[in-house]
Amino acid sequence: MEMKTVQELMAASNGGPETVPERFVRKAEGVEKAAAEAEADGLLPLADEAPIIDLSLLPPSPPPPASAEAVADELQSFHSALTSWGCFQAINHGMTGSFLDQVREVAKEFFALPSEEKQRYLRADGDMEGYGSDIILSDQQVLDWTDRLYLTVYPEDRRKLDYWPQKPDLF
């Protein structure tokens, strides 16, 4: 099933929520039910902010200078973040703020490109990598209101360079 890009859907909606396709509308009771089920399964309830994980406390090779208790606590936080949220904010990862700002700027430039340019990197059916929107698994699936560019970075031998944009130039 082919989906329009978020930009095409926004243009078609003329800014009015009544024209947003039903596939993108999450019912409040559905969110509340999912949160209650997660809590019943022993997962943490939803919070206002994503969990923060200190990567300097996780065990690399060689072991970190942190205490065994601090490492165990951070591993438990990591597990909890993944099971309750599916994501987390990483700190002490070794990337500079200026590098991350540059990555954000290049990403903004890519998503601001004309649709025809982004379509050159469209993901193939059944493939996670490339440009596009949600992979649709069922007709009842509620979709995210987003376009994505998913690329494998490491290991380098698994990079699919056909999906790596030529524009913007710094990409």
From TrEMBL:
<dbReference type="InterPro" id="IPR026992">
    <property type="entry name" value="DIOX_N"/>
</dbReference>
<keyword id="KW-0408">Iron</keyword>
<keyword id="KW-0479">Metal-binding</keyword>
<dbReference type="Pfam" id="PF14226">
    <property type="entry name" value="DIOX_N"/>
</dbReference>
<dbReference type="InterPro" id="IPR050295">
    <property type="entry name" value="Plant_2OG-oxidoreductases"/>
</dbReference>
<feature type="region of interest" description="Disordered">
    <location>
        <begin position="1"/>
        <end position="20"/>
    </location>
</feature>
<dbReference type="GO" id="GO:0046872">
    <property type="term" value="F:metal ion binding"/>
</dbReference>
<protein>
    <recommendedName>
        <fullName>Non-haem dioxygenase N-terminal domain-containing protein</fullName>
    </recommendedName>
</protein>
<dbReference type="InterPro" id="IPR027443">
    <property type="entry name" value="IPNS-like_sf"/>
</dbReference>
<feature type="domain" description="Non-haem dioxygenase N-terminal">
    <location>
        <begin position="51"/>
        <end position="166"/>
    </location>
</feature>
